[in-house]
Amino acid sequence: MDRLSSLLSQFGVRANLFYNGKLCGLSTYDGAGGQGFIHLLQAGSVTLVGADHKRSLLIQPTLIFMPRPTRHQLFAGEPEGAQLLCASMEFQGGVDNPLSASLPDCLVLALDELPMLADTLKWMFGEAAGAHCGRDAALERLFELLVILLFRHLLDHHQLRTGVMAGLADPRLSRSLVQIQTAPHRAWSVAELASESNMSRAAYAVHFRAVVGQTPADYLLSWRISLAQKRLREGRSITLIAAEVGYESPSALARAFRRKTGYSPRDWVKDLAGGDDGAMA
Asked: What are 40's strand-pairing partners?
């Protein structure tokens, strides 16, 4: 059972390298395009200013991970500056898919606390310093690998307290969550999910809500609708989507979709085309 791949197979991440060099002065990032950010501080020091205007001085190699659009600034004094690798990133399925929604707004982790990422970071910094053909494309793929390894680190070290990632880190809940994620078309009952976790129905329901932040039924609904939204973005028809995500008819999916989002699938797609995805997802 691969608890992480079942999630990433539906809501993977794409990275786009936009900075490789020495930062001197102030840079502002607002995520206006709906993207998140990854900054790698390789050398020097930088001050991170968050959306709440809180300042954090970072003086050692550090990973700054913002999975959703978050306004922030980085400031490096002159002339010493700071050596940075920066990429924007987008999750398949939009910024509010179950994976990104389970992550904090900002993670700041010293690189020496991430031994699982050490080889990849060494490879990245080597690529960044060289002038080989395909360097930027290689760095973008390495950023994507870095995110996967970061998720693995968060799961293995139980560093998230709520949401689906916290559930996947919980040995009693992970199997049932993977079952939901790999077979959303099944008419799962709480009793069946509890059996997957070797727990009583009542204990499972209480523990699931405490860790994931939703009831099992609400999470199943959220997962199905998130998958439907992803398929709609891809241009799939609601008729094909309905059976895939566990509804006996397009009208049944449409009712569940409206209950969850406040929109019919047709209206949601229209607003998505108009650029209002962030308001609805």
From this structure: 63, 85
